Amino acid sequence: MALISPRARWLIGVLLGVVLSACHHPVTSIENDAYVWQRQWNAPVREAVLRSADLVSHWRVLAAQLDAKGHWVDVAYDRATLAKAGKPVILVVRIDGQLSEWHADEVIAHVLALRAQADGWRVSGIEIDHDCATSKLTAYTSLLMRLRQALGDATSLSITALPTWIGSPSLGPLLAQVDDVVLQVHAVQSPTAGLFDPALAKVWVDRFAAIAPHGFHVALPAYGTRVSWDAQGRPVAIASETSTLDGADDGHELAATPQQVATLLSAWRHEPPKGWRGVAWFRLPTSQDARAWSPGTWRAVVEGRALEPALSVQWRPNPNTGSLDVVLRNDSEFDTELPGRIALPASCTLADGANGYMLDTRTHALTLAQSGWLRGQGERIIGWVRCPMDSVPGAVTLNARP
Fold first, then answer.
1. By its UniProt entry, which SUPFAM superfamilies does this protein fall under (predicted)?
2. Whole-number pLDDT of residue 194
3. Which sign, positive or negative, has the C-alpha torsion 280, 282, 283, 285?
4. Max intra-chain CA distance, the chain
């Protein structure tokens, strides 16, 4: 057998490396900004900021809101905590989309006052969050042009943008006024359409990337919400930071699960849209926020780690009712998407669902009616059955959403 010289081996190795690198898309390093949207900076919020600072490029901090009645509400954000976290801060001013009219002079004056109050520390920019009607984009552009001039070159100006703006001839002039755009892809449709659709989000981002004059961020959700409707189908109440499954009969849980978002984000990391700078996460999870992902799960998604499910179902005697509780357990450290169907033993002639599940009598199974996730190391009673204890299996391992 002929021997291969060291130089030939080196050349073969180089060529093999070139071939292999051409077969794989590089994983893109992206910015991860986080919205701190909480109005009350309590201990869990301060703790979350400090513990998550290593993940975050910029904090996008709610500083003030012009509400639907035209009243200003300022937020007492914690400057000391933000300074200790050591990352640049973008102050966000929200203009309620239901506001029929706003006055440019008043908005500009309030923004400049907020910047002046923050002078001397790490505020790098101002963001305007306004769900502007597409028909009013020209007036909005005028406001941004004047605000851009008032802020000067030392402070960046960014805005949030809606997918409904794509295709409007007014969008180009509006985008020319700002340094950065955060495209919203969650909670931008009627609540009846759900909170987040990954396939639709990808379509919106691809369309926006084709026309954006500069780089942009995408706002991705790390939360769920409960929406209640009136008899005419209009949303009358939205609960975003209170406990899930709070007993209300007239609401529906909407959720963006970690697995949904992680899958989309992985695709973008390997084939990034043109001009995509990164993610602006909404909202920063805290240990107290029951409708947001757990902080550990959010960290895993940001870092691109695998979210391996470890769900099981157990049957536990309930001494108060004489029936067996159907208990869903999550033995992983990550929040896991709720399974869509739990088959019941044939011996269980009586049963019903609970906490987001309903009984399907045709298939003799509990089926998911309220989308969501189960916290890592958590459990939930999802129904009950009546049958002999010796006729049901032990713990049954499940995959997410069978």
1. (Trans)glycosidases
2. 87
3. negative
4. 87
Give the closest residue to 132 by CA, choosing from 106, 172, 93, 160: 160
Beta-strand pair 341-343/324-330: unpaired
* Token pair in block for residue 293: 């992902």
The domain limits of the chain are: 31-303, 311-398
Domain 31-303, CATH class in plain words: alpha beta
Spatial neighbors of 336 by CB under 8 A, at least 6 apart, are 258, 259, 307, 309, 310, 311, 330, 373, 374, 376, 400
What is the rounded CA–CA span in Å between residue 333 and residue 336?
9
If one counts every other C-beta atom within 10 angstroms of the C-beta of residue 356, the result is 22
Q: Match 């269980």 to its residue by tokens.
A: 348
Q: What are the backbone angles phi and psi of residue 21, rounded to the nearest 5°?
A: -65, -30
Task: Tell me how crowded residue 216 is: count the other CB atoms within 10 A of its CB.
Answer: 24
Cα–Cα distance, 160 to 184 (Å, whole number): 7
Mean pLDDT by 10 residues, the chain (402 residues): 42 39 55 96 98 98 96 96 96 93 95 90 93 96 98 95 98 98 94 90 98 96 79 54 45 87 96 97 94 96 94 95 96 95 94 96 94 93 94 81 48
pLDDT score, position 18: 36
Determine whether 20 is exposed, middle or buried from the number of CB atoms within 10 Å of its CB (0-12, 13-18, 19+). exposed
Structure tokens belonging to residue 131: 């769900």
CA–CA distances in Å: residue 137 to residues 12, 164, 333, 372, 375: 58, 11, 45, 35, 41
